[in-house]
Design brief:
alpha+beta; 7-stranded antiparallel sheet; 4-stranded antiparallel sheet; about 30% strand; elongated
């Protein structure tokens, strides 16, 4: 949030948060460090906060200017399909997560779910990979049917190299494309299933 108003008590100049607007030190307004505020270079107040998100990611993506919808060029049919479906499903900040490998038809899209889950989806034409075969996790697998679509849910197990990943690996087929929701950095299995449900119930899927 950016406003011309100034606080009744000046913000402290004790903590830096990397962001594209100002390099001035500000202060955290909450004990959990979820809200940070600073007086901008022209005296305006700038407040950056998050809910179910990373403050670092929020501050880097926040800008006083409109953000272009996609920073990378859309080259694949899978990318185009995935972006349309995710947008129809109510996801936010949809963008290319990384360029496709040379000669590959598989795209990688990043997005934020309505509950604040930071996610990446692998999307490819049918036959490029089998969504019923685990790719990232090797634990117990269950199948749940949502809107006549089989959703594979594979849980993590020891030796999967979890790193920061949580939740599960969730995969399904969407008309002539196949999807894998990669294990996220935040969120739960239930939130991943909510994302999958939102995707497979869109007319675009």
């Amino acid at each position: 949030m950016q406003t011309l108003d100034v606080p009744a008590t000046p913000f402290g100049a004790i903590s830096y948060v990397q962001n594209p607007v100002t390099e001035e030190p500000g202060e955290f307004l909450d004990e959990d460090m979820s809200i940070w505020a600073v007086s901008g270079p022209d005296g305006e107040s700038i407040v950056i906060g998050h809910l179910d998100y990373s403050l670092g990611a929020a501050s880097k993506e926040w800008s006083a200017d409109p953000r272009p919808p996609f920073e990378d060029e859309v080259n694949l049919a899978a990318e185009e399909h995935g972006i349309a479906v995710l947008a129809a499903a109510g996801m936010r900040n949809i963008a290319i997560a990384q360029p496709p490998e040379f000669g590959s038809e598989e795209g990688y899209l990043q997005f934020i779910s309505p509950t604040g889950q930071i996610s990446v989806a692998d999307v490819a034409p049918s036959g490029w990979f089998d969504p019923m075969l685990p790719r990232y996790f090797t634990g117990d697998t269950v199948i749940e049917t949502i809107d006549s679509t089989d959703i594979r849910i594979t849980l993590p197990t020891a030796g999967d190299g979890l790193g920061l990943a949580r939740g599960a690996e969730v995969a399904f087929a969407c008309t002539s494309f196949v999807w894998i929701l990669e294990p996220p950095f935040n969120g739960t299995v239930d939130e991943m299933l909510a994302t999958a449900r939102a995707v497979v119930t869109t007319p675009e899927c």
